[in-house]
């Protein structure tokens, strides 16, 4: 799941390079992650810090 979130985060950053703090809500709102994927990531302790995905 970490690799899925990281790849989607990388794609999001490519489209919105000036956005500083990116959240799961941002990724979901723009269609990069589904609601189910966000829930699964959060349930697994995955976080977004400084444009990197950490667990």
Automatic annotation (TrEMBL):
This is Uncharacterized protein.
